[in-house]
Design a protein that fits this description.
- The protein has a domain of 115 residues: Sandwich (Jelly Rolls), CATH 2.60.120.
- The strands form two sheets. The chain has a four-stranded antiparallel β-sheet.
- 25% of the residues are buried.
- It is globular and about 55 Å long.
- Helix content is 52%, strand content 21%.
- It is of the alpha+beta class.
- It has nine helices and eight strands.
- A hairpin with a 5-residue loop joins strand 4 and strand 5.
- Pfam families: cNMP_binding.
- This is Crp/Fnr family transcriptional regulator.
């Protein structure tokens, strides 16, 4: 099992040697090529992945045939269409690797067995799920209430490692902005930082 993944888990909670053995047995390492889809609309998301290396995007295609970014994932983040994974219903999303990547993958069956067998791991996942839900709610509220400038500044502050790795048109979509608006906001932010320095 990846040392990166072990370090991540041990930072998040207390795990015994038995817990780590159960996790290693339940998971497989998978390499993913840039541009490869792990999930397409209409398929059931039957796995959860932990990103060891690389980046991913989860997006939907609108009726306007525009891509609408739902979430991103980079190192030490989890990746899946969690709604499809939990419900067993077909996904309305696509999951694509934005870079050559590596994930630790858990099938639905192994995931459920692991959560049942390791209360320590289950507690870690429950805490992470609650934190993710809160972040998702905050993002929705920001997208419907904050001006474009504030949304952009929050994104840069919250995700500095993500910002430089994701194409700007995807960031614009994630923030609920047009490309033109994001471009204008970025120029204004650069001017403000130059004046401040």
């Amino acid at each position: 099992m990846s040392p990166t993944f072990i370090d991540y888990l041990q930072e998040k909670g207390t795990l015994t040697r038995e817990d780590l053995e159960l996790i290693a047995t339940a998971s497989i390492s998978k390499r993913v090529r840039k541009g490869q889809y792990l999930l397409e609309e209409g398929e059931v998301s039957d796995f959860v992945g932990f990103v060891v290396k690389g980046s991913f995007r989860l997006f939907r295609m609108g009726d306007d045939q525009e891509e609408h970014m739902m979430r991103f994932a980079i190192e030490n983040w989890w990746v899946s269409d969690f709604i499809s994974f939990m419900s067993g219903q077909p996904s309305n999303c696509y999951l694509e690797a934005l870079e050559d990547s590596e994930i630790i993958r858990f099938s639905k069956e192994k995931w459920e067995e692991l959560l049942a067998a390791s209360p320590n791991f289950r507690r870690i996942i429950e805490a992470l799920t609650a934190k993710n839900f809160e972040a998702h709610q905050n993002r929705i509220f920001s997208n419907i209430s904050d001006p474009a400038e504030v949304r952009y500044e929050k994104f840069v502050q919250q995700y500095p490692n993500l910002y430089n790795r994701i194409p700007l048109y995807m960031i614009a979509s994630f923030l609920g902005l047009t490309r033109e608006t994001l471009s204008r906001v970025r120029k204004q932010a650069v001017k403000r930082s130059q004046v401040a320095s």
